[in-house]
Write a structure and sequence with these properties.
It is built from one helix and eight strands, in the order βαβββββββ. By secondary structure, it is an all-beta fold. β4 and β5 form a beta hairpin. The N and C termini lie far apart (about 40 Å).
């Protein structure tokens, strides 16, 4: 295993001062409610629960939209001025095993955009929002 990887175990971005961004501006960790997907309508999107993506500090997490759910394994990828959280996933579509990949890019103000791809299947852009503070 290569120990020279850029801190693949942490997904917390830092600002120009080197401190973690607690407001979630560029930090992908936490829960995101999926509010829109280009391939599926709102009726399917929230069929069983509020559609979401949840990302932990270790880059692991989970998601669900409609009848598709899965476990995420990812990292922050430097895409020039706009870093994004890139991930692979495995899970289920109804009762069938599926896998795929995707990405999520926080845009500030609690908003994010991304994409989820099902291996050998559909691919959909998405919009997400941090849930209101409780």
């Amino acid at each position: 295993m290569n120990d020279d990887l850029d801190n693949a175990d942490s997904v917390t971005n830092t600002d120009s001062t080197g401190s973690a961004d607690p407001t979630g501006g560029d930090n992908p960790t936490g829960t995101w409610h999926i509010t829109e997907m280009e391939m599926w309508g709102e009726d399917y999107l929230h069929r069983e629960t509020q559609a979401y993506i949840q990302i932990g500090e270790d880059g692991l997490g989970d998601f669900q939209f409609g009848l598709v759910s899965g476990s995420i394994d990812g990292y922050v990828e430097d895409m020039g001025t706009e870093p994004r959280f890139t991930f692979t996933w495995e899970g289920r579509d109804e009762m069938h095993p599926v896998s795929g990949g995707g990405w999520l890019r926080p845009e500030g103000d609690g908003e994010a955009e991304g994409m989820i791809k099902i291996h050998r299947g559909d691919r959909s852009r998405l919009k997400a929002r941090r849930p209101p503070q409780q």
